Amino acid sequence: MRKKIVAGNWKMNLDYAEGISLFSEIVNMVRDEKQGEQLAIICAPSIHLNSLAKLGGNTVSIGAQNCHQKESGAYTGEISAKMIKSVGCEYVIIGHSERRQYFAENNELLAEKTIIALQNGLTPIFCIGETLDERNNGSYFEVLKSQLEESIFGLSAEDFGKIVIAYEPVWAIGTGLTATSEQAQEVHAFIRKEIAGKYDSVVADNTSILYGGSCNPKNAGELFAQTDIDGGLIGGASLKSRDFVDIVKTFNA
Ligand code: PEP
What we know:
Largest sheet: 8 strands, parallel, barrel
Helix content: 40-55%
Order of helices and strands: EHEHEHEHHEHHHEHHEHEH
Strand content: 5-15%
Bound molecules: phosphoenolpyruvate
CATH architecture: Alpha-Beta Barrel
């Protein structure tokens, strides 16, 4: 059975005190209100990770938003997968469209990041998604397919079984333009079919595929009710404890 997951992505928001305060609220609310087996994760800026991992206990897991592709070395300003793991994090977002766009991260580099994360015992939350132009010109299936093939389809079936995929249409991130549940389901089913073709149907059935892009408490229910949508990667709404926890609770409904 694949896991149901709601992961927040705080991006470059909240100073240390604000981060601790918001996270403490989220942990308390999830502890009091969550029912069911869904996992709640917060992917925070690096500076917060050590403290949050200790506060989260078994209630809310912690992820980083990026890691370097090398084990260690002269890469000033970077943090390694080993460092992230060493403070108690379990997850790392890899390939977010903002990293692809602003930091020129390409599929080949993201393949290296995925491998180093897995080698250090982290679960990559691997993001793929098309731009508005690619959606409008109808090339989105090809784009998604090449993102999968060039980054993560080189993994063994065993390693592939350890990752989580997030489908995040770039045109829906931070724009308020959510994909309709039909649009999202169509792509999630496509991704699962591609995984089955590359590996097998057991691997495909066991892979959690999250939707991300202006997901909020109002639209989460319809999105998460789709057969191939196993949760969400939540940006803006994860900065409000009530909204984030309401999205987590959507799986109870
Ligand atoms: C994201 O950054 O991963 C994201 C989905 O952002 P938002 O929910 O704000 O669109």
